[in-house]
Amino acid sequence: MNLGITRRVLPAFHERLRDELTFPLSWGRSATRDFPAWRAEARAAVGESLLQPLTPGPEPFGPVTLDERPAGPYTARTVEFALSRYGRTRGSLLMPCGSGPFPAVLVLHDHGGEFGIGREKVVRPRSDPERLAPAEAWADRYYDGRFIGDELAARGYAVLAVDTLGWGDRGPLVHEDQQALAANLLQLGTSLAGLAAHEDIRAAAFLASLPEVDERRVGALGFSMGAYRAWQLSALSDGVRAAAAVCWMTGLKELTAPGGNALQGQSAYFMLHPGLHRRLDIPDVASLAAPKPALFHAGGRDHLFTAAGVESAYATLRAVWESQGAGERLTTRVWPDAGHTFTSAMQAEVYAWLDVRLAGPDERGLPSVTGCGDLQHVRGGDIVGPAGATAEGRHPPQRSGHVTRGYLAAGPGTTARGGRRPGSPPPSAPAPRRSLRMPENAMPAGLGDAGEAGLEGPDRGVLGEVLVQVGQVREQVVQEVAGLAAEFGVGEGQRL
After folding, report:
1. What angle do CA 23, 25, 30 make, to 5 degrees?
2. Distance between CA atoms of 340 and 136, rounded to whole angstroms?
3. CA 259, CA 272: separation in Å to the nearest integer?
4. What are the DSSP calls for 70-115, one per residue?
5. What CA–CA distance (Å, rounded) separates 347 from 349?
6. Rounded to whole angstroms, how far apart are CA atoms 403 and 233?
7. Torsions phi, psi of 325, nearest 5?
8. pTM, rounded to two decimals
């Protein structure tokens, strides 16, 4: 037998290795037939391969708002918080106007080989003009010219997006250095994919902890690598109640067939947990989210995932959800004419699905007409209110008609959920900042001694955002008028 390698850097005996993968811990093969017990056992196996905790951990988030700007029916903030026990990073936080609590979505960015922007791929960059042009070009290429985070915020969702290690503020990383980064992390006792998974768990927990967010209605959404991260997050975190994944689902054997993109290495390390596939296939891991709501969309012309791999994975997922009497909570679809892209038509279906699974009939999160009216501008990292005074406190105990550092305080005619959650510890000063960006030598900062801590294109996106905002304002005005009429006993056709 040939014990060498093939042209595509596969071992010549790769078929024998593939045949040995029987996934004995999958729901269909496991001897454990109690589903909660199986899920706990399988999650523990995933946790061993992650080489990182499966829980957010006790470390405080210590959030600070660095920038805040009005954006129609929501505000756009740049926040900094402790993403892991190793240090702090920045994130883009979009918060609807009003008092909340709002449903929320952690939007997870894709890979695509573009490392200069990360969270800016899904949330329009407002505080860094230099990243706007590449972000818009990326949105045009993969998202039909839309920033999906902003689309969700305009629909009344709180949205958070954070850079994965190597992207945006946490770079620089170049394509050929991905394997070096992964190797360095393995040398340090952890893995690149495991660290990314843990950080996503922490990011979701941070989003749920915000006083404006309804922690019972937190979901995850992603495209491509972001889709992988979304379903993985739902599988590993009970705090995520629903996940939508677009263009990343297949079986391991189909993914590693000769000619597959994953065989090139590099990007594969962000989704590679050492030893995991000796016990679980890819859809087996995703099935740990059952019976929670889950959506999987694929493109019929996606060159990265074969039709056979997608359909095989979908069958595995459906068998698990149906075994728990939750088949109606699983949505799978292949868009025949779509490639590796998240089109506007796909987005519309995903948003409608999220509206059912997360927003629901609860109207407490409807934006207030005047909720963002007092936000004027930003000066030196502090938000300046109508009187020109800055607010230094991170928590909003007062109602003074301005935005405080960290949270939106109430203006005239609005209410705010101030202070802390019942039973939560008192606020503490943020921990000293340690960088989580990538230094020059492809070593992660904070680990080891080597690192220190109808229209086309942009016009359609701009006009669409304006129209969405106009429609929401109109709906809000109608609701306000109806409320006043009911309060004062004014009948239909009478004047207020």
Report:
1. 115
2. 18
3. 18
4. EETTEEEEEEEEEEETTEEEEEEEEEESSS-PEEEEEEE---TT--
5. 5
6. 32
7. 65, 30
8. 0.77
Size of the chain, expressed as the number of residues it contains: 496
Q: How far apart are CA 181 and CA 173, in angstroms?
A: 9
- Say if residues 409 and 391 touch (Cβ distance below 8 Å): yes
Burial 359-384 (b: 16+ CB within 10 A, else e): beeeeebbbbbbbbbbbbebeeebbb
- For 210-226, what is the mean pLDDT? 98
Contacts with 312 (C-beta within 8 Å, 6 or more apart), sequence order: 250, 251, 254, 283
Check residue 362 and give its pLDDT.
45
Condensed to tens digits (0 to 9), the pLDDT of residues 324-375 reads 999 999 999 999 999 999 999 999 999 999 999 998 654 333 433 334 654 4
CA atoms within 13 A on the CB side of 235: 29
- 3-class DSSP state for residue 455? coil
> CA 199 to CA 42: how far, in whole Å?
20
Say which amino acid occupies 346.
M
Six token digits for residue 331: 């949505």
Report the alpha-carbon angle 199-205-206, nearest 5: 90
Residue in the block written with tokens 């101030």: 418
* 383 vs 389: CA distance, rounded Å: 8
Positive or negative CA dihedral for 15, 16, 17, 22?
positive
Most confident of 171-185, 402-416, 468-482: 171-185
Judge whether 298 and 333 are in contact, CB under 8 Å.
yes
Among the listed residues 343, 395, 375, the one whose alpha carbon sits nearest the alpha carbon of residue 96: 375
pLDDT tens-digit map of 441-474: 666 665 544 333 334 443 444 444 444 455 555 5
Q: What is the pLDDT of residues 147-200, one digit of tens each?
A: 999 999 999 999 999 999 999 999 979 999 999 999 999 999 999 999 999 999
